[in-house]
Specification:
Rossmann fold, 2 domains, 6-stranded parallel sheet, 3-stranded parallel sheet, 10 helices, binds guanine
Length: 293
């Protein structure tokens, strides 16, 4: 069997077109566009690239974007001040504090400072707490896990009662996606670097979320026939056959996994394009909420 490909790029494009129409309606109604504010501290090239991509995406859907670029030696006061200024700015509806922050900055304190109404990354401890609790709903959910859930929904996967295995327990992906799968009534197992017999656990999964950040770690022989596989990994590997000398692969060995899975995402073109789309969608929601408050 060869898996159906879950086309994140196409789904993201369709959703961004909808967000752009929504943004135009918002701007016509309120005379000012939805706005995203970002705080970037330090010189991590991947973070700088993410922030650039997020700002470009804002422009494409008709949002404004504001960025506070702080250097690697910034103090907690400078980071806190940038967040407070975005909290107080009426043209900013959503705030994103790009992670990781430099080691001298208390991440928990920074994330807690973001106004709940503008917490479009869903990383405020109150939003994460609500996500984990039965009968509660957070205002916003983190972008990458939300993108995974949209891809699962679009693939037609049944979550209710399904065995879902999340490989990776990061605050940004593994933990929140596990909470979201629980809310969707899946039976969730979270695996990590110290998990024993990982292949056997993955073999029982109807749904696999791969978010460990190790190139092609999960093999096709581990995948239950017909399972749905969402690959969050983006790992750069050397490839002298490409023009640039490198390419990106996921956490799943795609060539073998696609022979077992019922549906699978590709890297690139799977989860990646969804992440920024979910951030835009959350910002749109924040703008409507704040404007009508
Ligand atoms: N760093 C890696 N992924 C993310 C993300 O989704 N949001 C933020 N703020 N930082 C990140």
């Amino acid at each position: 069997m060869t898996a159906a490909i879950i086309d994140g790029a196409a789904i993201a494009e369709r959703m961004r077109a909808e967000i752009a129409r929504d943004a135009a309606r918002f701007t016509a109604q309120y005379g000012t566009p939805p706005g995203l504010g970002a705080v970037l501290a330090g010189d991590n090239p991947a973070s700088a690239q993410y922030v650039r991509m997020k700002r470009r995406a804002c422009e494409q859907v008709g949002f404004t974007s504001t960025a506070h670029m702080l250097d690697a030696s910034s103090t907690q006061e400078q980071v806190d001040d940038a967040i407070r200024r975005l909290n107080d700015d009426p043209a900013v509806h959503g705030i994103l504090v790009q992670l990781p922050l430099p080691p001298q900055i208390d991440e928990e304190r920074a994330l807690r400072l973001v106004s709940l109404d503008k917490d479009v990354d869903g990383f405020h401890p109150i939003n994460i707490g609500m996500l984990g609790m039965k009968g509660r709903e957070p205002l916003f959910t983190p972008a990458t896990p939300t993108g995974c859930m949209v891809l699962l929904r679009e693939s037609g996967a049944v979550l209710e009662g399904a065995n879902a295995v999340v490989v990776g327990r990061s605050n940004i992906v593994g933990l929140p996606v596990a909470l979201m799968l629980m809310k969707a009534n899946a039976t969730v197992t979270v695996c990590h670097s110290r998990t024993r017999d990982l292949p056997d656990i993955v073999r029982r999964a109807d749904i696999v979320i791969a978010a460990i950040g190790r190139a092609e770690y999960i093999k096709g022989s581990w995948i239950k026939p017909g399972a749905t596989v969402i690959d969050v990994g983006t790992n750069k590997i050397a490839d002298p056959n490409t023009e640039k000398g490198y390419r990106y692969v996921g956490d799943v060995e795609f060539a073998t996994a696609k022979e077992a899975a019922g549906a699978i995402t590709k890297v690139p073109g799977g989860v990646g394009p969804m992440t920024i789309t979910m951030l835009l969608q959350n910002t749109m929601k924040a703008a409507w909420r704040l404007a009508s408050a």
